[in-house]
Amino acid sequence: MAVRQRVTVGDEVTYVVLDRQWRVVEPAEEYLEHLRQEQYSPHTVRSYAHGLALWWSLLEDRRLDWQRVSVEDLAGFARRLRNRGTDPAVLTLRPVAPVPASTVDAALTAVMSFYRYQAVVADVPAARTFYVHVKGGTMESRGRYASFLGHVGGGQDRRVIGRRRDPRLPPPFLTPRQMAVIKDDAAVFDQDHGGWMGDLRLRLLWTLLEETGLRLAEGLLLRHHDWQPGTGTTAHVEVQPREDTRRRLRVKHQQYRRVYISDELDDLYGEYLFLLIESGVDFGDNDPVFVNLFRGQLGRPLRPETVYDWIDAFKRRHPLLPAAWTPHWFRHSHATALLLAGVPEHVVQRRLGHRDIHTLMTTYAHVTEDAAMRAAADWKSLASRWGAMA
Question: Residues in domain Tyr recombinase (predicted)?
């Protein structure tokens, strides 16, 4: 069967699609290279490579020409995905849970995007059959697909295979009390010794994610010159367009933004700098903020795997907290707190780095309508400490 293969080219970690003879599938590789040149996220390249590998497996099993497949073949591909790669006509002795609709749709999106690309660069017959043009409430056939001209005829192009979406659930969040437990487990200030006990580095990371709404990748990619202390002005951190292929980290959308922070967080960063000096870490303005202190090479950039190892151990120590929580829950908690505290939506949008306010409003539409959530914690008091209105 076709497989998705992880490869390293120089400093770049990427993925290719191989056939049964372990040869690179050239049409798929051409499209994936297009995504790389357009600076798509490595996670997107990986997802699309996985979807195309599944599609090429079906093509090889049925001995189909990728340029002359039909809508029925695409529908069969969707059925195959939902049945975890088996023939839907085969009865399984031990039925398993169906594949989530989001997983099926991710693979379909990869295949459809591949054929959209092929329709633009070459006259591939299959690309003509996978889309119809909707105009005035009716459907009309299209020749060559050209989505960037779809508005000219007063209609739009739609794919012929629909998608089944799982019901949109409210994003999970941590209460202020739960976030306090996580931070205190990392490190606490010992009054008797007059210093921090534990891993102050992770205490700083969790406090940063709680107070700024940064994604984990954005936090781990911060460098010291991105942290602007409050010397006469409001302290802030600057999220720079940046990526680290070795650690598989990337700032989403590769967009710059400035996020203001509280004096308490800025002071905690100062305490952390003293810890780095005491630990013998040699660092400069262009070095990463979060580095190895207890395992691995001292001073090397902190990897997300290390963070998740700590989370796994934390969950064993605190089984009563939500078992599924991840660092991204801090981001959801941040947005929830700001909205419940009455911070304007456009301010929250800029702070989170969403491209448009529609993303914010659709993701957190439930927040202002949920009275129980509003009463769950003193969100306004929490948000007032962050300087989010600056």
Answer: 169-378
User: 3-state DSSP: the chain helix, strand, coil percent, rounded to 5?
Assistant: 45, 15, 40
Domain 176-384's class? mainly alpha
Phi-psi map region of 276: left, alpha, beta (phi>0 left; psi -120 to 50 alpha): alpha
pLDDT tens for each residue of 268-310:
999 999 999 999 999 999 999 999 999 889 999 999 999 999 9
- CA torsion through residues 340, 342, 346, 349, sign: negative
Distances (CA, A) of 117 to 71, 148, 211, 252, 332: 17, 12, 41, 23, 35
Rounded-to-integer distance, Cα 40 and Cα 47, Å: 11
Distance CA 316, CA 306 (A): 16
In sequence order, what are the beta bridge partners of 4?
A: 17
What are the boundaries of each domain within the chain?
3-126, 176-384
Spatial CA neighbour of 18 closest among 63, 62, 49:
49
